[in-house]
Design brief:
Helix content: 55-70%
Strand content: under 5%
Largest sheet: none
Order of helices and strands: HHHH
Structural class: mainly alpha
Distance between the termini: 43 Å
Number of helices: 4
Shape: flat
Oligomer: single chain
């Protein structure tokens, strides 16, 4: 892969990162949204590439360094999902039926608010 480390200014690099991040935020219910699994979202992958490019990760590096970065991202993602799963499992045991009813009502209210906000944004 070609390196553009010397051809772009820092400001230009950040402009690219900001642009890629701006297109990497689909609505949660859309394909690639948070409910679909961001790990397969091409815009998320492009965001990683842009951030790695700005931070100059792997510039002039070999395959071992590149593999280390990929392994680091993989392990970080796996630890995040493991922590999230364990946390949900622990919290789930602490909720009784009444608490779950209220949690469902609050979640429904938040989702309804998001839906109304989306509809309003279509009108405006």
């Amino acid at each position: 892969m070609l390196s553009f480390a010397e051809t772009l200014t820092d400001e230009q690099r950040w402009d690219i990162v900001n642009y890629v991040i701006s297109i990497a935020r689909p609505a949660p219910w859309e394909t690639g949204g948070t409910l679909d699994g961001p790990r397969t979202n091409p815009a998320t992958i492009l965001s990683f590439i842009a951030v790695f490019g700005v931070l100059r990760v792997g510039v002039g590096a070999d395959y071992v360094s590149a593999g280390t970065v990929v392994a680091g991202v993989f392990v970080g993602s796996a630890l995040w999902w493991l922590t999230l799963s364990i946390g949900v499992g622990v919290l789930r045991a602490k909720f009784d039926a009444n608490a779950m009813k209220w949690m469902n009502r609050i979640s429904g209210f938040i989702l309804t608010g998001c839906g109304v906000g989306a509809l309003i944004s279509l009108i405006a």
